[in-house]
Amino acid sequence: MAQKKINIQFSKGINTMIVFGIAMAVLLLILRVIHWKFLLIDRSQELYSAGIAILFTTMGIWLASKLIKRNNSPLSADKASIGLNAIPNTLLSDRELEILLLISKGNTNQEIADELFLSLSTIKSHVSNIFGKLDVKNRTQALEKARNLKILQFADHTKV
After folding, report:
1. Where are the domains of the chain?
2. CA Rg, the chain, in Å?
3. Spatial contact of 105 and 79, defined as CB atoms under 8 Å apart
């Protein structure tokens, strides 16, 4: 009988602990909900601002990746393309070929500098190197010689 009494008291103790444990869990849950509710109300402007910032950042990254993919290859332009295999022993560097292509489109030195994110003096140095390597004195002669050497292959509708 004493054993039965101990089991009943032990059982009541466990039941009491379970009830208090559940009550504590519910109380903690209510406190968390209240905490988040006040956090959202008190900090709503900051949260909305952060959400908008994340949205615009994501859109900017996506748009930039699309624009970079579209404009990444200036060598495949409509008006001219560089025939690198046509002259295996060409002395022009890749950057000089890129600048020659932009010259063929009629771009000024400043426009080329802006497009390639280089300084104007760097572009002038490259243009001077192109003139020296092609043994010409101006842009028109450089484009004509590049066409004759098949460094640049112009489409029929291109005016040079």
Report:
1. 2-71, 80-154
2. 37
3. yes
The torsion angle over the Cα atoms of residues 104, 135, 110 and 98, rounded to 10 degrees, is 50
CA distance 154 to 77: 10
Q: Is 63 exposed, middle or buried (0-12, 13-18, 19+ CB in 10 A)?
A: exposed
Instruction: Report the pLDDT averaged over residues 90-108.
Output: 89
Is the C-alpha dihedral spanning 49, 52, 56, 58 positive or negative?
positive
**pLDDT score recorded for residue 27:** 92
**pLDDT for the residue numbered 7:** 61
State the Cα–Cα distance between residues 81 and 102, nearest whole angstrom: 10
The pLDDT value recorded for residue 125 is 94
CATH 1.20.140.10 fits 80-154, yes or no: no
Computed over every residue of the chain, the mean pLDDT equals 78
